[in-house]
Amino acid sequence: MSSIFSNRKFLLGYIVFWLLWIGMQTGLLYRLGFRLEVAFPDSLVDNGLLALGGVAVSHSLRFSRPGKKKYAYIFIWSLGMAAVCTLLVRFSLSFLFNEEKEYQLFLFHSLPVRFWLAFLMTGWTAMMSWMWYTQEEQQENENRKNQAEKFSREAELFRLRQQLQPHFLFNSLNSISALAGSKPEEARRMVQQLSDFLRSTLTREKQQYLTLAEELQHLQLYLSIEEVRFGHRLNIVVENENAGLSSKVPCLFLQPIVENAIKFGLYDTTDKVTILIVAKLDREMLEITVTNPFDPSTAIPNNGAGFGLSSVKRRLYLLYARHDLLETQTNGNEFITRVRIPQANEHILS
User: Fold this and answer.
1) What are the phi and psi torsion angles at 234 (to 5°)?
2) Does domain 232-347 have CATH number 3.40.50.10540?
């Protein structure tokens, strides 16, 4: 924690204040009839010790601070430092002007006034320091809390992304195994496509956001694998506005949405299935809609339809702090997943 005197403005103000106070006290003593040779050293020693006392009190508060509403400690510290400073002033000035009888008498009678002034000055410095260090401590605690939340958020995002890969790999390896005996050429092609997909995934592993164009390019690697699995039965149609291709989206968030669409669109039918992906940019919101057919009698894709969509919804909340960015609905025999991605910088949690 930095000292209050590390703040240049406060340090400059502190020095200027004591210089002005030394000048005022010198002028006052001079008007009381003391020679300048006496008035200036008196003021310099008195206020110099008080300034150092304030620094000492501030330094002690930097490492040992009373809790809230425990102002009695500050009162006691200020009172003790004022007493020490007054004693040092008494002995220092008595030694400097030991032959000045009139001044010695004045010094003795002025000790109570000097003590209370010392108490006020050190108390003022103590309160300023206490407020400064309390604010600094609160700021440090807030920074640590934000940093911890950021690390926790990043760890959960990483975990969510990693949980998707084993599920996809399991399905892909099963498909490769099934093709190896009957269609070895397609099995080899699928292995190559899976390799390309995993390589692309690894290169984007540390990226939090991609452009929509990059996300669609990566999605195509995933779809090329699924097309080998399902052959002519799977038809993917992508419609997008060119203005939206440079929009920022969470890295690799489309795969689980499309995987969910394929699951509910193809698993319960042998017919050809078309999955429609539509992306459009509306002001500061990119909207992506994935529509797939499903059989209401065998599939119940309500409120997320499994881990894939729930993980996407959780990721969107962690990134944008909003719960309303992913919605699902049914329209007859169509299942619609709609995702909205904020594009304004202030909506993105970094």
Assistant:
1) -100, 125
2) no
Is residue 41 packed enough to be buried (19+ CB in 10 Å), middle (13-18) or exposed (0-12)? middle
Q: What is the distance between the alpha carbons of residues 25 and 103, in angstroms, rounded to a whole number?
A: 15
- AA identity, residue 280: K
Taking a C-beta distance cutoff of 8 angstroms, is the pair 65, 36 a contact?
no
What radius of gyration, in Å, describes the C-alpha atoms of the chain? 37
CB atoms within 10 A of CB 332: 8
- Among 181, 248, 243, CA closest to 214: 248
Lowest mean pLDDT among 48-52, 105-109, 146-150, 304-308: 304-308
Q: At what angle do helices 254-266 and 101-182 cross, to 10 degrees?
A: 30
Q: What are the boundaries of each domain within the chain?
A: 4-145, 232-347
- Listing DSSP states for 207-257 in one string gives -SEEEHHHHHHHHHHHHHHHHHHHGGGEEEEEEE-GGGTT-EEETT-HHHH
Instruction: Measure the CA–CA gap between 127 and 124, rounded to whole angstroms.
Output: 5
Length of the chain: 350
Q: Residue with structure tokens 């103000």?
A: 13
At how many degrees (to 10) do helices 101-182 and 8-31 cross?
170
Exposure letters 68-84 (e unless 16+ CB within 10 A, then b): eeeeeebeebbeebbee
Contact 197, 191 (CB under 8 A): no
Q: Summarize the confidence of residues 85-91 as an average pLDDT.
A: 90
Residue-wise pLDDT for 192-207, tens only, equals: 888 888 887 777 666 7
CB 286 within 8 A of CB 279: yes
